[in-house]
Request: fold
Amino acid sequence: MRYISKIIEGFKSFLKAPNWPKFLALIVLGLPPGLIFTFILSTLQFWLNSYNLSKIMIGMFSLAILPNALKFIWAPFLEIINFPILSRYLPNRYAWSVALCVILCFHLIFISYQSPGKDVGFVFFLVVVMSTLTASLEINLDAIRIELFPKNQQGYASSFYAFGYRLGQIIGAFGVLYVSAYFSWQIAFFFVVSILAFLSFFLVICAASFYPKPLVEKKKRENNFLKIPPKEQFLIALNRFKEPFLTFINSKHWFSVFFFIFAFRLGDSFINNMSNIFYLDIGFSQLDIANVVKFFGVFFTILGTFIGGYLVMKYNDINALLISGFIHILSNFMYLIQSYVGYDFTLFYGAVAFENITAGMATTAFVAYLSNLCKKPYTGSHYALFSSIWYLNTACAGIGGILASYLSWSTFFIVCIIIGFASLSFIFYLKKFIIQFEK
Reply:
């Protein structure tokens, strides 16, 4: 009851705050990262499977997420390079975001006309390009979210943005799968394009609403990075790149923190990369998976985020992370049970509910931990660095496709559970160093 009363009081404070239009706007701004990330990492597996590609080939497509693990390299440059023409009329963050949405629309249309069965290498390249564009878009949207609100409202901002992210996941999985099942995969691609087109229009409205003053000052336009002599460009770029990261690397135990971020939920990433193929193999249809995993399950993920928020409030973020991480590994035993039982809808619903609640708990605690690691004035670059390491974990999940091809499903899940417990044990060993670093 005490936690519920805190939520109610927080909601009352939100209604009284003058920034509520911005909070609601964050729901829309959170849609594209959740939509496209889910589309690349999960939904595309069904598209590839329709061309009878091997498990190894499908699993290796998770490597397309690798640009998200490298986005910290170009994140500082998005701040100093004005996007041509658009930056004359929009703040540079919005100019980049609108442009990237439009480019992604044309890119998705082009991919929709490709055939993975004929040239899987070229399709993989196109997906990598799409992932790179999406990573750049996410850098700008994260910066917009942070810059729109003062520090004392960042908690609310993250919650609304995360809610939009989850809605994007529902659309990217449940929505796209339904459109592809009742129409075609090409129509499903155009469905995603229509959402991105709406977002580009919405971003222009946000820029006009939240920046009523002249959007771009003349001085800022004249200081365009690309107009500076090449030698100065190199020095500015070098300093802009190294400063945020040197402030982190010069801290004690930075490598332990890096490994902590990478190792957390590594075994779980292997499972997630092949879960759709597993469900198809034991007899569930594409629509079954859309209904249960991509729609029903997401609501339990949202419930898990509130439970994770409670754990962060009651304990510190690292303890909440360890508690939720341990419970989430236990939920992976449901996959093992399902592999022995096979096609069973009751177990399917129960397993998905349990797995998604615990995943929401772990993700909320993890994001809180990463946010607390960021130091001013390099918050944006630091968060890009930490989330890049997190995405590297996901990109390495392509190994899951190799394991699933040479092992039975039950053995595969046992191996992944062992990896999960090993990672958590190592994190527990490093706990004292991580807490010292955070302080």
Remarks:
- The domain at 18-227 is CATH 1.20.1250.20 (Growth Hormone; Chain: A;).
- The first helix runs from residue 2 to 16.
